[in-house]
Amino acid sequence: MAAVALSAGVLLMAGEPAAADPPETYDAVPAGDYPIDVDTTPDGAHFFVIDRGDGGEADLRVYDTTTFDELGRIVFGPGASFNPTAVQVSPDGSQVWVSFYNPGQILVYPTADLIAGASPAPVVITGGGGFVDLTDDPAGGYIYAATLFNPQYQFFTADPTAPPRTIGLPIGSRGVAARSDGGAVYFTQFAAAPAGGVQTVDVAADGSLSLGAFTATGDLPWGVAYLEGPDRVLSSNSGSPTSLSGFTPPGGAVDTQPIACGPRLVDGTPDGARAYVACLTGGLVALDYSSDAPTGALVQIGDNVESVEVAVDADGAAQRVYATSGGSGEVLVFTRPTVTPGGGQTVAEGAPATFTVVVDDFWQQLQWQVSADGGTTWTDVPDAQTETLRVDGALAASGSLYRVVATSALFDPVVGAPMLLTVTATPTPSPTPEPCPVVPGEQVTCLPATGADPAALVGGAGLGAGLLVAGLAVITLRARRRAL
């Protein structure tokens, strides 16, 4: 299918190869009726999406992350009767958990069967109703469920049918996240400020639960995420004013950043450098926490975005961002860009050199840089923000390195490999010899027009003879010995 240019970016339909992509290029994967949550397998090979079924059927779908092919689908029933709220893959990748607000239940499927396109019978867990969010214990032992009505739940992955542990909170919850060490779970306390915030539930070594500290964060907290690197809890506040709050538990100072959207679920990179907020009002808010003063930007792509999931590499840097777009019935996939340099250039002195790069996937700005010291320091080239750079082939610039940096609100900057400029000097022409004056009886001291060596024309101690060709005349010279 052909790419479609949008005001907010460029849409690539699933399966279309990307090459020399323009700014804000992403993949739009067709889903069902109002996709509402997405989660990936631990190996990053597949992702699962639940569709709420507005005006149609509620279902669960599985996709290949390379081809974006739909591999399987489980239909729950009409959206009016089934209201799925969250999907969570277990830490070992063997189970897929789906929670429902109505009916009040959780279904657990074997992952391998879903990927194979089968329709396995799920394990059915019934509860008090109002399930709204799920998260996994990174150690792999538990799945936690948040409910708008108490209690909150801790289920066992080894035996989903075993009686769960429960704990009551002062107020019901909208979202849940777990510490990477498994020692605590964080539930948003969905209430107006100042009662709105994050309730910590401490988890003992044996898995037993107890109430911990409460941290007020804002008005009507919705989503919550835990970032391991900075030991930070993030909470999206959906009331007034809309914002994203962060704090170090327990009891750390709360930092709140205003965001211009209706926030829903939130996710972030484990190193804490970046956070993402799904916006019901459309798009994603991306916040960069890599500096002391966080900066944020709204990427206005997608309609009724309720869920966001970030996939990272071994170093914890974001490589992909998945977002559900309920209004368009799609899963939006943003991939960190790649920069492929065209190679170094060798030109003659005075001739222009043209450097090129090919940038694929999601980027928003390009900047060419130059280094005159072998890559130790780099300086931005003024007015150079396209995939082509033309420079003058000045001899003094030979040895300079050029590169491109691709940036966006969603990902860390991507720096292209440097390209070398080599300028070859213009050859200096040999001087044209002047005619050699000949004075009879005098020694020849200059180069005759023949190019012959004058030493060959003069005998040092005896007689020497040479020929000077001047027009058609032939002149015989006899060197004279000077008496000493």
From TrEMBL:
Entry keyword set: DNA-binding, Membrane, Signal, Transmembrane, Transmembrane helix
Domain of life: Bacteria
InterPro entries: Host-pathogen_enzymatic-act, Quino_amine_DH_bsu, WD40/YVTN_repeat-like_dom_sf
Record keyword tRNA-binding present: no
Record-annotated membrane-spanning stretches: 455-477
Keyword Transcription regulation belongs to the record: no
GO molecular function: DNA binding
Signal peptide (from-to): 1-19
Protein name (record): DNA-binding beta-propeller fold protein YncE
Organism: Microbacterium kyungheense
